[in-house]
Design goal:
- The chain contains 20 helices and 10 strands.
- It is α+β, with helices and mostly antiparallel strands and 506 residues long.
- The protein has a single domain, classed as Orthogonal Bundle (Cytochrome p450).
- The strands form 3 sheets. The chain has a 5-stranded mixed beta sheet. A 3-stranded antiparallel beta sheet has the order 4-10-9. A two-stranded antiparallel ribbon has the order 6-7.
- Helix 7 packs antiparallel against helix 8.
- The chain starts with a helix and ends with a strand.
- The structure holds protoporphyrin IX containing FE.
- The site of protoporphyrin IX containing FE has 24 residues, from helix 6, helix 13, strand 5 and helix 20.
- One of its GO terms (biological process) is mycotoxin biosynthetic process.
Length: 506
C-alpha cells in the first residue's frame, strides 16, 4: 500500500511544475523551421568556464553557416538569431517591420529594463524620433575637439606605465580597470559635461565609475540573463533585490550629478562649448516639458553606458591582439611616429588620414565586435525575411556580428585572422569598403542602415587617438602566463588580459 501511495503523491507534487516547465520552455509553432540551439547552452556559464568564442564554435557555427539563422533561447523566450548578410540587410532596412523592442517592451519588470528604460537605442517610432531630434547633434558633431581625447589618453598611458613600474618589468599588469576609468572619463567630458576624474584614483574612489563593474557583472549572470522572469521575485531572491538597488543607485547618482552640473552652468555665463553636450540638450528638453523625468533619466543612463563600455571592451581586445602581434605594433608605430614629428597634437583630420591606423581599428572591430549579439527587434506584422524565411508577427529577431565577421563564405578562408591589409591601401579605399560592407550586412560592429550607431565617428576617433598616444610611448606583449579567455556572455572581449609594458626610449 505504502509504495503506490508514495509514487502517487510524488507524481501529484511534481506534475504541476513539470507541466509548467514544458509550457514555459516549449518552442512556439509560429517560429520558422530552423535548427534549435539547446537551451542549456544559454546557461552554460553556471557550470562551465567556456568563453563566447568556444561556445560559438561548439554549438553555433555549423548551423548558422549552413542555414543563415537558428532558434535560440534568449531573455526568456525562443527567438530567431540571424547571420546571413542579405537577411540582416532586410531586417536593418525595414525597421517598420522588424521594430526595435528592447527589454522595456520584452521584459519590462526585469533588472535590465530598470537600468536602461526607454531610450534612444531601444525605442521605436515616435519616441525614437523625439530622442533622436534632441540628442543627435550632441552625438554627431562634425568636428570633435581632440585636445581632451589626447589629454585623457596621455593620462591613461602614464597610469599604466606607473603601474608597470610598481609591479616590476617581469609581471603583467591588468589593463581592464584603468581602461574602464579612461572610458568613463572620456564619456563624461565629451557627452555629459561631467569631469568625473576617475582615472588615476584607486578602484572604488569614484562610486559612479565603480558601479559600472558591478552593473556589468550583475546583468550578465547567466541564470537571470536567460530567465528574466526570476526578476519577479526580489522578495525571494536577495541577489535580485541587490540588483534592483544597484540600478536605482546608478540612476539617482547620475541624475543628481547632472542636475548639479546643469544648475552650475545656468549660473555661470561662459559655457558656449558645453551647450553642445547631450546632457544639456536633454536638460533643456526636460525643463521645457518635451520629455518626462523618466525619459530624461533613461537617456542619460544609456549615454553613460553605451558611450563608455564599447570603447572599453574594444581597447581591451586591442591590448590582447596587438600584444600578440609585435609586427603590427611596429608598423603602426612607424606611421604614428612619422606623423607625431609634425603633429604632436593631431587634429581629427590628421588622425583620420592615417591609413594603417584606420585599417587596424576596422580590423579590430571585425574580429572583436564589442556588441557581438543583440536580439532586440520584434516583427510587427507577418513577414518573409529576405523573401525566404517566414517570420510570424510577434517573433523576436536578432543578429550576431561575430557570426558574420568570422564566416569564411563572407570574408574568405582567412576570416578569423587579423589582417589589416584586407581593408586596402588608402584611407578612401578603406572608407569605401567600410561603407559597402556595412550596407551589405557583412560588417556590422555598429549595426547598419536606419538604426546604426550614432557615436561611430566619435568612437573610431577615440580609439585611434589612444593608439596614437600609446604606440608613441610604449611597446607591450601579452603576459606569457596569460591564457586567452573571452567573456562568457554579453559584450565580447578578452577576460582579465595582462600585458607587460616597456617604455620607449625618447
Ligand atoms: C566602439 C564603440 C561603439 C560600438 C561598437 C557601438 C555599437 C553600436 C551598435 C551595434 C548599435 C546598434 C544597437 C542596436 O541595434 O540595438 C549602436 C547604437 C547606438 N550607439 Fe553605439 N557603439 C559604440 C560607441 C558609441 C558611442 C561613443 C556613442 C555615443 C553616445 C554611441 C551611441 C549610440 C546610439 C545613440 C545608438 C542608437 C542609434 C539609433 O538607434 O538610432 N555609441 N552602437
Amino acid at each position: 500500500m505504502a509504495l503506490p501511495f508514495i509514487l502517487l503523491s510524488t507524481l501529484v507534487t511534481l506534475l504541476p511544475p513539470l507541466l509548467f516547465l514544458t509550457w514555459y520552455l516549449h518552442v512556439p509553432r509560429t517560429l520558422p523551421n530552423l535548427p534549435r540551439i539547446p537551451i542549456y547552452v544559454s546557461i552554460l556559464g553556471l557550470w562551465s568556464p567556456m568563453g563566447q568564442d568556444e561556445i560559438y564554435e561548439r554549438w553555433f557555427r555549423t548551423p548558422l553557416e549552413k542555414h543563415g539563422a537558428v532558434l535560440v533561447w534568449f531573455a526568456g523566450r525562443w527567438s530567431v538569431l540571424v547571420s546571413r548578410p542579405d537577411w540582416l540587410t532586410d531586417m536593418f532596412r525595414n525597421e517598420q517591420i522588424y521594430a526595435k523592442a528592447g527589454s522595456q517592451i520584452k521584459i519590462p519588470h526585469a533588472v535590465i529594463a530598470t537600468l536602461v528604460g526607454d531610450n534612444i537605442i531601444n525605442a521605436h517610432g515616435e519616441n525614437w524620433r523625439l530622442y533622436t531630434g534632441i540628442m543627435k547633434a550632441g552625438l554627431q558633431k562634425k568636428v570633435f575637439e581632440t585636445t581632451s581625447l589626447l589629454k585623457q589618453s596621455r593620462k591613461l598611458v602614464n597610469v599604466l606605465i606607473d603601474l608597470q613600474k610598481e609591479i616590476g618589468s617581469k609581471e603583467g599588469i591588468l589593463v581592464m580597470a584603468d581602461v574602464q576609468k579612461w572610458a568613463v572619463d572620456v564619456m563624461g567630458e565629451n557627452f555629459l559635461d561631467l569631469d568625473l576624474k576617475s582615472l588615476g584614483q584607486p578602484d572604488g574612489a569614484v562610486r559612479i565609475e565603480a558601479l559600472q563593474s558591478i552593473i556589468k557583472a550583475t546583468l550578465f549572470e547567466p541564470m537571470y540573463f536567460s530567465f528574466p522572469d526570476l526578476d519577479h521575485f526580489p522578495w525571494l531572491l536577495p541577489s535580485r533585490k541587490r540588483a534592483y538597488n544597484i540600478m536605482h543607485e546608478f540612476d539617482d547618482r547620475l541624475y543628481a550629478k547632472i542636475m548639479t552640473m546643469l544648475h552650475k552652468r545656468s549660473e555661470s555665463k561662459d559655457t558656449p562649448q558645453s551647450e553642445e553636450m547631450v546632457s544639456h540638450m536633454l536638460g533643456e528638453a526636460y525643463t521645457s516639458g518635451r520629455i518626462t523625468e523618466k525619459q530624461f533619466r533613461d537617456n542619460l543612463k544609456i549615454t553613460f553606458l553605451t558611450a563608455h563600455e564599447n570603447a572599453q571592451q574594444l581597447v581591451t581586445s586591442m591590448f590582447w591582439q596587438l600584444g600578440t602581434r609585435i609586427d603590427i605594433q611596429d608598423r603602426l608605430r612607424e606611421e604614428i611616429l612619422a606623423t607625431s614629428k609634425t603633429h604632436p597634437n593631431p587634429s581629427q583630420e590628421v588622425i583620420n588620414n592615417l591609413p594603417y591606423l584606420t585599417a587596424v581599428v576596422l580590423e579590430l572591430l571585425r574580429l572583436f565586435p564589442p556588441v557581438c549579439q543583440l536580439i532586440n527587434r520584434v516583427a510587427l506584422q507577418p513577414a518573409m525575411l529576405g523573401g525566404e524565411l517566414p517570420i510570424a508577427k510577434g517573433t523576436f529577431v536578432g543578429w550576431n556580428a561575430w557570426a558574420v565577421h568570422s564566416n569564411p563564405a563572407v570574408w574568405g578562408e582567412d576570416a578569423r585572422e587579423f589582417r589589416a591589409e584586407r581593408w586596402g591601401e588608402s584611407v578612401e579605399e578603406m572608407q569605401g569598403r567600410f561603407r559597402r560592407e556595412t550596407v551589405r550586412g557583412t560588417y556590422i560592429p555598429f549595426n547598419a542602415h536606419k538604426r546604426k550607431c550614432l557615436g561611430q565617428g566619435f568612437a573610431l576617433l577615440q580609439v585611434k587617438i589612444l593608439l596614437f598616444v600609446l604606440l608613441g610611448r610604449v611597446s607591450w606583449i601579452v603576459d606569457p602566463e596569460y591564457r586567452l579567455k573571452m567573456t562568457p556572455g554579453g559584450i565580447l572581449a578578452p577576460l582579465g588580459c595582462r600585458v607587460i609594458l616597456t617604455e620607449l626610449e625618447s
